[in-house]
Amino acid sequence: MNTPYEFGPGKLYFRPAGEPSAAWQSFGDLSALSLSAAPLAGGRSENWSGNRGRLPGQPLAGTLSLSAVLHRLTSASLAELVSGAVAEQAGGAVSSYTLPPVAPGVEVRLPHLCVSDVVVTDSAATPTTIAPEHYAVHGSFGAVEFVSLPDPAPTQPLHVAYAHLGAHQVDLLTQAPRPLELRYEGINIAAGNAPFVLELWQVEIARLKDLVLLDSQRRLPGVPLSGDVLLDTSRARPGMLGGFGRFTQAVMG
Q: In the predicted model, what is the mean pLDDT of residues 120-148?
């Protein structure tokens, strides 16, 4: 059994904002997470002294922003970053998939990944099974490469029967962005490994900026995550973050 490597002792979870009955889902493994606060300019400036000095004004809540670096995404969290939706493709079997015209050297792609038990037949009145020596199956990516054809030539189009595993599919830019409720569960090592929870009621996550699929420098690139924390006016103002969220840490004895 393979145990995936994880960077830190904390976990980031999400669910749609304003849906307290929705299940929490993992955002994935992350190596960095930070929360930044910035004040909003308030007050006014006087104009009688010639200095344009700033006068006191009504205190403003300011803004909060979130940034993180992810190193393992789930299909659900990827869908949030690309404004897409997740579709589950069940494993099963295909009895007859029709191929385009083939010749020696042609490689065709089946519409599934991780295929097995491949059988190729032709379109004759009494279908003839093509011997496996005439093609190579690259099962991981659902590819069939024809290295030769039997003599006499089979009646085309050829048909493929095969089994395949299930898969997760995420479509791209098909959904309107939605605010998320985030929950980070961490350990404060400096406070005797005290567990703490950071809750943010509504976060407007920025769309994916950079997803490195290949890196020739043998690094372990991360996926940057950023977002603005929105004020939830329907919430009371408990804890340190008011209508934006709250921070809770256990008191260790």
A: 97
